[in-house]
Amino acid sequence: MAVVPESRTTGLRVEVRPFGEDDYPRLIEIVNQSFPDYVWSVEEARHEDAIWDHSRYVKQRVVAVVEGRVVGTGVVNHIPDEFHPHKYWLQAAVDPAVRRRGIGGALYARLIEILAARDALAARASVPRETDTETLGFLTRRGFMEVQRGWRSVLDVAAFDFSAFATAGNRVAAQGISLTTLAKERARDGEALQKAYALTMACEQDVPSADPVTETSFDHFLAHAVESPNAVPDAFFIATDGGRYIGMSGMYRPLAEPGVLYQGLTGVLREYRGRGIAMALKLRTVRYALEHGYREIRTWNDARNRPMLRINEAMGFAKQPATIVLERRL
């Protein structure tokens, strides 16, 4: 436990303590108020923490308390798919009703203490919208510098014009390539999950990132892509060539936002690129969303990923203000 002395300007006494089981509802409330573009639920937060592999990766949550009430939350953790033993993700959020009173500073100071005790080399944080000048200023004043930028993009499913892409499916089929789903593959192939995992790891290698991409475990893949409450196996689309998995586009559903689907990884093996496969897979995701009553698909792309950005732009995804990832060397 850490207690920050009363501020000379606010007279506020802030206690920063470890996160507890009873803190989940307040965690969700504060985080959703702070980052409304990415709202989540208690069930999702509990699942994320329950499946965390503490034998390989560090994760530590804290909360800020004023007069017995949780008013802020923070976390530091390793980044599994860009793993470095001394680099961490850092996030802090404060109830909007009590900001600018030193609570964010108290949380940040405690998180940095935790990282210092672990001999951390760097901390990374994000600003979901570049228009959030308050969060951006908070981080830059503390030495964070931009290392990555990308766009969250949104597709209006009902307004999508399939006629503009009428030949896309035939182009892929003419190459002997079939499109299916992970759910169907599991029903016919006992090795489907292992093959989907291998494909995911191969495709992730070429996703632009701030640090080199690292492979995660098969169990990590299962926990996120198959067993998660967000998983949609019949919307995990796979392209096959003679039984070989050569492309994918996975979807997941945020529990707190009915009517919305998130686009996860879309990727094609290098030797199959430039043949319209990614577009055909993405069109299947839109068809699925339309047929199952989803109103919106949301995705995120690194600014350097021009091939995927071109596909999204052609499909009519509307870019939102940029998301910025920043890093501070410790």
Overview of this protein structure:
Strands 1-2-3-4-5-6-13-7-12-11-10-9-8 form a 13-stranded mixed β-sheet, with helices on both faces. The protein is α+β, with helices and mostly antiparallel strands and 330 residues long. It has helices spanning 24-34, 42-50, 103-117, 133-140, 168-173, 182-188, 192-204, 218-226, 277-291, 306-315, and strands at 2-4, 14-18, 59-66, 69-77, 87-94, 122-127, 145-156, 177-181, 231-241, 244-252, 260-268, 296-302, 318-329. Mean pLDDT is 94; it is low at 5-9. It is elongated, with a radius of gyration of 21 Å.
Summarize the structure.
The chain is of the alpha+beta class and 330 residues long.
Question: Secondary-structure blueprint of this entry?
Answer:
Elements: E1 2-4, E2 14-18, H1 24-34, H2 42-50, E3 59-66, E4 69-77, E5 87-94, H3 103-117, E6 122-127, H4 133-140, E7 145-156, H5 168-173, E8 177-181, H6 182-188, H7 192-204, H8 218-226, E9 231-241, E10 244-252, E11 260-268, H9 277-291, E12 296-302, H10 306-315, E13 318-329
Parallel strand pairs: 5-6, 11-12
Antiparallel strand pairs: 1-2, 2-3, 3-4, 4-5, 6-13, 7-12, 7-13, 8-9, 9-10, 10-11
Order of helices and strands: EEHHEEEHEHEHEHHHEEEHEHE
User: Outline, from the CA principal axes?
Assistant: elongated
Q: Round the Cα radius of gyration to an integer and report it.
A: 21 Å
Oligomeric status of the shown chains?
Answer: single chain
Total DSSP helices: 10
State the total count of DSSP E strands. 13
Report, as a whole number of angstroms, the end-to-end distance.
22 Å
Poorly predicted segments: 5-9
What fraction strand? Answer: 25-35%
